[in-house]
Each structure stands twice: as structure tokens, then as C-alpha cells.
């Protein structure tokens, strides 16, 4: 079957120009009037900071420390909430473009069709853009793809450091670090850089926490951005909550919505029985996936070519993140932004039929995630999670057997 590699492909410049035009158009439509929901909370955090209050001592942000950069940057230019929101939306739009830029560069390096990957990414962004610019989860996708790009450029120290920096904005990019460490088991070239960066980042964290505690900061306030999710109930969009609501729909014990952190958690017998142990279940699930990846790498390696390394990084990271999302107590809609870059690269190594299937499933996942907020139909959540389960299956299939369900394109093949 003819691959997308054999089809026409736009140049890097044309693809990036297309992305810039689409993102600029979206910003003009949605970005100038978005002073609602989370943006107001971020604005209030910046007001507290400028008012002399110190984060993690006088108040809790609920996020890692570098997130303050996003909250404070718009405030440097204005005190008006509407202008603040417009600048905040512009920052998110720039992050989407930077993510696209890294994707295009990766495609050029690894002979993947830039147009297919870029169009799918821009389509997925467009479907959720209006809500995404009120969050800052676009930073996760950016730092994930930036770390992968640097890794492929053989800048292993900076790739791991970028993942750590992203985790200091929102914790999810930290999942890349164990994947890099696992790959370094068999990749001697990257071992020194990955280990050095991991050790340095660990020392920095320990030193910073020690200094803050000595300075009189409450250790609970410092780690609150982790505990705020682990100590709460099951968010209404989480997998366990969806199962509890489905049980009620079929005549089982009823459920109720409980307001929590500007959203709602689900209270039901199933949720109440699991809430105290579920964080440990999630941790065990993530560790189990990482152990499977480590086993596969120890037995089969990661490959000698850049293409094989890219496939392993994408498959391993995507599997780890999906398990984290499916087992997490909190699964807000914006979390799907975390895996956007991984999914579009996931689509790149396919024949035509395989790429179309991945594209359809990806778009369906976004539409299902966004439509749930409009009607709260539990079947929508279960369909979304089913699609994520398909991606998980495909990722783990490659990790263990080095093959997709749809035969992937062989690159750099010598022609007679």
C-alpha cells in the first residue's frame, strides 16, 4: 500500500507558514476575549505575588514553581484582566507554534511527511483551541516534543534537562525522564548525558527544598501541587468516575457531584471504596509499564538508527502518559494536550491506511473529550478512554515486538 512518504510534501517553510496563519486566525477569533475560568485564577495568583505575598509560604499556587512565569508574564504589561487574558492566550498560541516547529524539524530529520503530521496537529489544536488558551497545558506538549527533538540531536543532557524544566511548570514531562533513563541502559552514547542531567536536577531539587524549609516554608505547601490531586476524590472525567456513573446508569448505586477545585468530583460507593488507595494503584501501574519498557529495551535494545530510537521514545512515552491519565484521579479535558505531539508522530510511521486510522481516532478523541463538557454523557468518556486504550495497546505492541498493527514505512531504504 502506498505510504504517505511517497506523496507530495510541503517544505518546512510552507508548513510553518501555514501553521502560523491558522494559529493567528484562531487567535483573532478566540484569543481576544477569554478572561474566564482558569485565567482569572492565574491573574489572582499574580496579584498576590505583586502584592508582596510569597508563593508556597503565604499562599499556594497549586502548581510547580516555574508555572509562576506564565502567571506573571502577562502581568508585566498590564493590570487589566481582559488584556492579561489576551496576552496569556498569545503565549499559549506561541507555544503551539513552537511545538509545531519542533515537530516539523523532527519530521525533516527522520524523513517523515511534514504535511501529514502538521495538518493533524493543527486540526487537533483547532478543535480545542478556544478552551486550551485558558489553560497552560500547551507547555507540556512543547517540553515533551522539545526534549525528544534535543535527544534526537544527540544533546542528551539538555533533552533530560528540558524534561525536568517542563516538569517544574506542570509535572507531566517528568514521565520522559524514566524513559530516557531506560533507553540509556543500552544506548552508551546517551548514558552519560542522561545520568548527569538526572543527578544534577535531583541535587537542585533537594537543595532548593532544603533551603526553603530552613527559611521557614511549610514543606506541605511546597509539595501541595502534587498532593492537591492525590488527596482529592475522583474527578468527573476520570476513568473510575466514568465506571461509577455507568454502574448507576444500569441500576446500581447512585452517584453525586461534589464541587472541588473549581470543578466537580464524583461521589459513589465505588469511588469512596477506592479513593484512599487509588494513588498507589496509579503509581504501581506507571511503574509496571516502565518495567515492561525496561525489560523490552534490555532484551532488544533501542536500535542503532535514529528512526528506531524515535519510535521507542514515542511509543514508551505515549504508553506511560496514557497509563498515567487512565489511572489518575484527575483527568481534565485539557490533559489531552499532553499527548498531542506524541500522537501525531505516532501517526507518522504508518502506511496510508494506518495513518488514516490514527488520524480518525485522534480527532474522535478530541471531539469526545470536548463534547462531554456540554452534555455529561458517560458513554462519551468511555469511548474516549477506549481510544486511549487502543493507543496504549499499539504503543506497547511496538515496545515489545517492534511492530505496529499497520505496517510502518521503512525509511532510508536503498533503491537500485
Walkthrough of the structure:
One of its GO terms (cellular component) is plasma membrane. This is DUF2029 domain-containing protein. The protein has about 425 residues and is mainly alpha-helical. The chain has one domain (about 5-235, about 275-400). About 65% of the residues lie in helices and about 5% in strands. The chain is built from 18 helices and three strands. A three-stranded antiparallel beta sheet has the order 1-3-2. Helix 7 (about 155-165) packs parallel to helix 9 (about 190-215), helix 12 (about 240-250) crosses helix 18 (about 380-400) and helix 14 (about 280-300) runs parallel beside helix 18 (about 380-400). It starts with 11 loop residues before the first helix and ends in a 15-residue tail after the last helix. The model is unreliable at about 1-5 and about 410-415 (pLDDT under 50).
Comma- or semicolon-separated keywords:
single chain; 416 residues; mainly alpha; three-stranded antiparallel beta sheet; 18 helices; disordered N terminus; transferase; hexosyltransferase activity; membrane; transmembrane; GT87
Q: What is the H-and-E element order?
A: HHHHHHHHHHHEHEEHHHHHH
Total domain count: 1
Characterize the largest beta sheet: strand count, sense, and whether it forms a barrel. 3 strands, antiparallel
Shape field: globular
Which stretches are poorly predicted, pLDDT < 50 over at least 5 residues? 1-7, 408-416
Give the overall pLDDT as a whole number: 86
Strand content: under 5%
Assign a percent range to the helix content. 55-70%
Number of helices: 18
Distance between the termini: 20 Å
Structural class: mainly alpha
Strand order of the largest sheet: 1-3-2
The total strand number stands at 3
**Computed Rg:** 21 Å
Amino acid at each position: 500500500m502506498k505510504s504517505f512518504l511517497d506523496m507530495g510534501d510541503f517544505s518546512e517553510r510552507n508548513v510553518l507558514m501555514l501553521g502560523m496563519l491558522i494559529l493567528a486566525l484562531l487567535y483573532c477569533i478566540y484569543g481576544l476575549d477569554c478572561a474566564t475560568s482558569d485565567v482569572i485564577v492565574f491573574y489572582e495568583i499574580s496579584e498576590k505575588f505583586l502584592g508582596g505575598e510569597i508563593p508556597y509560604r503565604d499562599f499556594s499556587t497549586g502548581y510547580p514553581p516555574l508555572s509562576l512565569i506564565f502567571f506573571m508574564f502577562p502581568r508585566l504589561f498590564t493590570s487589566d484582566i481582559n488584556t492579561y487574558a489576551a496576552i496569556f492566550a498569545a503565549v499559549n498560541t506561541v507555544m503551539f507554534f513552537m511545538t509545531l516547529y519542533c515537530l516539523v524539524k523532527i519530521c525533516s530529520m527522520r524523513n517523515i511527511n511534514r504535511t501529514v503530521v502538521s495538518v493533524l496537529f493543527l486540526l487537533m489544536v483547532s478543535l480545542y483551541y478556544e478552551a486550551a488558551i485558558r489553560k497552560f497545558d500547551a507547555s507540556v506538549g512543547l517540553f515533551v516534543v522539545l526534549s525528544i527533538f534535543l535527544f534526537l540531536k544527540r544533546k542528551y543532557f539538555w533533552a533530560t534537562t528540558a524534561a525536568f524544566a517542563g516538569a517544574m511548570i506542570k509535572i507531566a514531562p517528568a514521565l520522559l525522564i524514566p524513559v530516557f533513563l531506560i533507553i540509556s541502559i543500552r544506548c552508551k552514547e546517551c548514558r552519560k548525558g542522561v545520568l548527569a542531567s538526572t543527578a544534577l536536577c535531583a541535587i537542585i531539587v533537594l537543595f532548593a527544598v532544603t533551603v526553603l524549609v530552613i527559611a521557614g516554608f511549610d514543606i506541605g505547601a511546597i509539595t501541595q501541587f502534587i498532593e492537591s490531586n492525590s488527596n482529592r476524590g475522583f474527578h468527573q472525567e476520570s476513568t473510575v468516575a466514568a465506571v461509577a456513573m455507568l454502574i448507576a446508569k444500569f441500576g446500581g448505586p447512585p452517584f453525586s457531584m461534589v464541587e472541588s477545585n473549581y470543578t466537580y468530583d464524583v461521589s459513589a460507593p465505588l469511588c469512596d471504596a477506592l479513593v484512599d488507595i487509588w494513588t498507589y494503584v496509579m503509581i504501581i501501574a506507571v511503574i509496571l509499564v516502565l518495567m515492561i519498557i525496561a525489560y523490552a529495551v534490555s532484551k532488544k535494545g533501542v536500535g542503532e538508527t535514529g528512526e528506531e530510537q524515535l519510535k521507542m521514545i514515542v511509543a514508551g512515552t505515549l504508553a506511560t502518559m496514557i497509563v498515567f491519565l487512565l489511572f489518575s484521579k484527575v483527568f481534565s479535558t485539557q490533559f489531552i494536550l499532553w499527548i498531542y505531539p506524541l500522537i501525531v508522530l505516532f501517526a507518522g510511521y504508518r502506511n496510508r491506511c494506518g495513518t488514516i486510522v490514527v488520524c480518525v481516532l485522534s480527532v474522535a478523541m478530541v471531539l469526545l473529550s470536548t463534547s462531554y463538557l456540554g452534555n455529561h454523557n458517560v458513554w462519551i468518556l468511555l469511548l474516549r478512554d477506549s481510544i486511549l486504550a487502543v493507543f496504549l495497546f499499539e504503543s506497547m505492541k511496538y515496545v515489545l515486538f517492534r511492530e505496529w498493527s499497520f505496517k510502518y514505512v521503512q525509511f532510508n531504504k536503498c533503491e537500485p
